[in-house]
Design goal:
The chain contains 6 helices and 4 strands. The protein is mainly α and 275 residues long.
């Protein structure tokens, strides 16, 4: 038997299909709600760890630069010391004042160069020490976040394992139900559902009120809803309204309160003493 075209469905059939779809989608929402904020928490931890990894790499690069700079200054000191030793030896063999002054200036320059290099080394080592502290702090924080991530992922996986099969079944059912609903109506339903705080796009009438926003529905409008002749939205929240009976929902009518029985007053006859 060929499937009925969604546009050929009666209003009653359309409402039934919409309500079945809503029930299915609400089931999916419930499964996702079990995860709570865990997916966001996992994503936040992953982002933070990625940021810490970048920071650690940057700090390590700076430490390496300081280390290379210190090594370079140590090499420069070694060269200056070698030059100083050579100039001092030459100073003992000078034959005139001009050579003596020239060598004395070279010796003074090399001594200043050594002093300057030692200062740069101390500064570089101090900065290296500071950045090493920053590195240890960042690595400790990263290790802590990685531990938290493992725990959150494990918790999320446990929940996913419990709900995955049922959620997939509901998703497949929702896809099949959507095929039974004409595109324009489905689009309107999804728009209403996405705009609703509780994710309900179609609701049944409860106690003469909309089941979504709980505003009262006029009697004539309630009658129109029961007739199933047209799609009727709530005047206040825009949700599509459906008759509880059509939705397959049994509404319990509150028992009427018994009025207290009025006690019959017994008139007491005033007896007059005959005298």
């Amino acid at each position: 038997m060929a499937k009925k075209d969604p546009t050929d469905l009666t209003v009653e059939e359309k409402l039934k299909a919409l309500y079945q779809l809503q029930t299915t989608l609400s089931g999916i929402d419930e499964k996702r709600a079990l995860r709570g904020e865990l997916p966001l928490e996992v994503q936040d931890l992953e982002d933070e760890i990625a940021g810490l990894t970048t920071r650690i790499e940057k700090i390590q690069h700076e430490i390496d630069q300081f280390d290379r700079a210190v090594s370079q200054k140590k090499n420069e000191i070694a060269e200056a010391q070698a030059s100083l030793k050579r100039y001092q030896a030459q100073l003992e063999t000078v034959s005139n004042n001009r050579e003596y002054d020239t060598l004395s200036k070279e010796i003074e320059f090399q001594e200043l160069e050594i002093e300057l290099c030692n200062k740069k080394i101390r500064e570089g080592q101090q900065k290296m020490q500071e950045r090493m502290q920053d590195l240890h702090k960042a690595e400790g924080l990263k290790a802590d976040r990685e531990k938290g991530l493992v725990e959150k992922r494990s918790e999320l996986e446990d929940i996913m394992a419990e709900t995955r099969e049922e959620e997939e079944r509901l998703k497949e059912k929702a896809i099949e139900l959507e095929k039974k609903i004409e595109p324009r109506l489905l689009q309107s339903f999804k728009r209403i559902r996405n705009g609703a705080r509780n994710g309900l796009g179609i609701v049944y009438v409860q106690r003469d009120a909309c089941g979504g926003c709980f505003n009262k529905i006029p009697p004539q409008r309630q009658l129109d809803i029961k007739m199933h002749k047209k799609i009727i939205p709530c005047e206040y929240c825009g949700r599509i309204l459906i008759d509880p009976e059509l939705a397959g929902v049994k509404i319990e009518t509150p028992a009427a309160e018994e009025k207290p029985k009025r006690k019959r007053s017994i008139r007491k006859k005033k007896s007059e003493d005959a005298e």
